[in-house]
Amino acid sequence: MRSLDKQYITPILRKYELLKLNADGFMMTRSLAENYPYSPVSKANIRGARLEWLSLVELIEANQINSENALHYLLSQLLNNAREFKKLATETLDSVQHFLESTEIINQQIITDLIWRHIEESDYAARIMEIAIHSLMQAMQENQLFPDCELKPLSQMRSANKKHGNIGDIEILEKGNIIEAWDAKYVH
Q: Could you give the CA distance from residue 45 to residue 32 in angstroms, rounded to a whole number?
């Protein structure tokens, strides 16, 4: 299933901007790789619409719903969500541009509180913490605070390991060598 996902499903979803997925696709989670069927008693630790997904699989397997119609419906929902996301992204970028062009004095405490609130209210607090720290490092790099070094781009969320050549979530390179790295951890 992982090969089908990586070669066919995820590239199509990306091509039409229906989902933003990591390079390996949605089937990379260990929960879906287990050797037992998808059913209401499935042990798979799926985030989001777990019961809805399992119900859909059950209905298709019991021939109570046409699988092609279900796929069409899911794709139409993804298209609607993608349009809404693009609209929200455009509005957000417009707001940021307005803020950047403003001559008002920036209240650092308000910004800090906003970032922390976003982290604390999210189901993905650890990833948002990584993004916040990486964004701060980008601002430092743009202001030449470490001119002889480069900030390695933020990669997909995974544990540091030799295979992927990373040792932390945020890494500073000097002449291609990692000279400093941070691993972001956040606990509610």
A: 8
